[in-house]
Structures are given as structure tokens and as C-alpha cells.
Automatic annotation (TrEMBL):
Residues 21-64 are annotated as: Disordered. Pfam families: VanY. SUPFAM superfamilies: Hedgehog/DD-peptidase (SSF55166). This is Serine-type D-Ala-D-Ala carboxypeptidase. The lineage of its organism: Bacteria, Bacillati, Actinomycetota, Actinomycetes, Geodermatophilales. Its EC number is 3.4.16.4. Residues 25-51 have a biased composition (Low complexity). The keyword Protease applies.
Length: 255
């Protein structure tokens, strides 16, 4: 009896957490507000017949499940203080997605997210995905030649320091605004910010966190970290991976 009560309580808590995490926001444009019922795509837990074992306690999230350092870890944290190791790392499981490449799991999650957006009448497009070390070398050199090193380092990441090199980062667009700050104000941009976590994506460079991430607000740049971590970040209102994992802020390159 006591056990049943505990299970019931935990289930209640979980339900409460689920229903409170995505308040329906008024659509300023007044267009697709019928998105009132947000995606039913979140995997429903087995609703019928409660199993004998109680569900795992939700409150504690194990922050050590995956490596933050291994370049092929879904949780790898890459910033201006944490280059990929090795610098020339290339993922082994890249797959094609619309003529671009992402790691297999991220590619599937991108397909799922854009499909869910489409179901709400929103067209979220993939603008950029995996970028190789060599590509970044060329891009960085071009920027240095055109604008000088200081400006180049604001515009593009040094080779080996770009999250795009992990195969887990993507730039998305929509609403007539691709890879621009105005994406944040589009219905697509707001949807991605609100619902990306349900598919394992986070807005990696949020507004007002440049002192932590080293990058100004990039509402279009999303990073795949898996549903568990993405929803935990959203649930706890944590802006950045650095803050969640207690890593040093990385406002710029060292030295
Ligand atoms: Zn990007």
C-alpha cells in the first residue's frame, strides 16, 4: 500500500513536470496559434498497467553519465577554452541530411524536429550542419585575410574549436530569416526555442550569455545533446552547458 502511494505520487509529479514545461505562448503574428496542442510526439510513458518496479526517481539527474571531453560524446562541450581533442577530429557516423551531414542520431533528431514543426505549419530549414576541420581552416583563413585576426575570431571559430565540427550542431532557418538574429522573432524561431528540447536540441548560444559561451546570441544555432539532457536544461532553466556542468566560462580564447 505504501509502495502504491509512492508510485502514485511520483507519477503525479512527473505528469505535473510535463504539463508545466511548455506554456502555450500567444503568437504575436496571430497566425498559427492553433498550435495550442503542442506536439504529441514526446514519447508517452507506458500509461496502462503500472509495472511492479517504480519509475526511477526523476529529481536526480546524473551529470556524469557521458563524457564532456570525448569528441564523439553526445555531451561533448566545445567552446573557446575547450577545443576538440584531437583538433582534427571527424565523426565516424556522419549521414546525409538534405545534402548536408550530421551524426546519425542528430540527423534523425533533426528530421523529427522539422517534421513536428511542419505539423504545426512551420517550415524549419537546415542551413548548415557538419563542418570539417579543413573547411574551418579555409574559412578562418579567408576571414583573417579579409578582416584581420581580431575580427575573424569574432566571426568564425578557430579550426578545432567549432561545435559544427562535432557533427552535433546545426544552423536552422525559417520565417524568412536564416542565420540572422531576426530568427528569434519568427514563429519558427520561437517554436525551436520552446520545443527543440523535446527532440534533444538546445539553443547553444542564448541571449545574454556571451560572457559564458563566447558567442553572441545565435537563435539559429542548435546543438544536439539528447532528449534527457536537453529537457533537464529546460526544466532547470539553465542557459548553457558550461553552467550546467560547472565548467569555466569561455568568453574568449585563452592567451
Ligand atoms: Zn552554427
Amino acid at each position: 500500500m505504501v509502495l502504491l502511494a509512492v508510485v502514485a505520487a511520483v507519477v503525479g509529479l512527473v505528469r505535473e513536470a510535463r504539463s508545466s514545461d511548455a506554456p502555450v505562448t500567444a503568437d504575436a503574428a496571430g497566425t498559427s496559434t492553433s498550435a495550442a496542442a503542442p506536439s504529441s510526439s514526446a514519447p508517452a510513458t507506458t500509461s496502462s498497467a503500472a509495472p511492479a518496479t517504480p519509475p526511477p526517481a526523476a529529481p536526480t539527474f546524473d551529470r556524469t553519465q557521458l563524457s564532456l571531453d570525448a569528441p564523439d560524446s553526445l555531451w561533448v562541450v566545445v567552446d573557446k577554452a575547450r577545443p576538440l581533442a584531437p583538433l582534427e577530429y571527424a565523426p565516424a557516423d556522419l549521414v546525409d541530411i538534405g545534402g548536408r551531414q550530421l551524426r546519425a542520431e542528430a540527423a534523425q533528431a533533426m528530421r523529427d524536429m522539422t517534421a513536428a514543426a511542419a505539423a504545426q505549419g512551420l517550415t524549419v530549414t537546415l542551413q548548415s550542419a557538419y563542418r570539417s576541420y579543413d573547411y574551418q581552416v579555409d574559412t578562418f583563413r579567408n576571414q583573417v585575410a579579409r578582416f584581420g585576426e581580431a575580427r575573424a575570431e569574432i566571426q568564425v571559430a578557430r579550426p578545432g574549436y567549432s561545435e559544427h565540427q562535432t557533427g552535433l550542431a546545426a544552423d536552422v532557418g525559417g520565417g524568412g530569416c536564416d542565420i540572422e538574429s531576426c530568427f528569434a522573432t519568427t514563429a519558427e524561431g520561437r517554436w525551436v526555442a520552446d520545443h527543440g528540447a523535446e527532440f534533444g536540441w538546445i539553443v547553444r548560444y542564448p541571449d545574454g550569455a556571451q560572457d559564458v559561451t563566447g558567442y553572441k546570441y545565435e537563435p539559429w544555432h542548435v546543438r544536439y545533446v539528447g532528449v534527457a539532457l536537453a529537457t533537464e536544461l529546460q526544466r532547470t532553466g539553465t542557459r548553457t552547458l558550461e553552467e550546467f556542468f560547472g565548467l569555466p566560462a569561455a568568453p574568449g580564447y585563452p592567451g
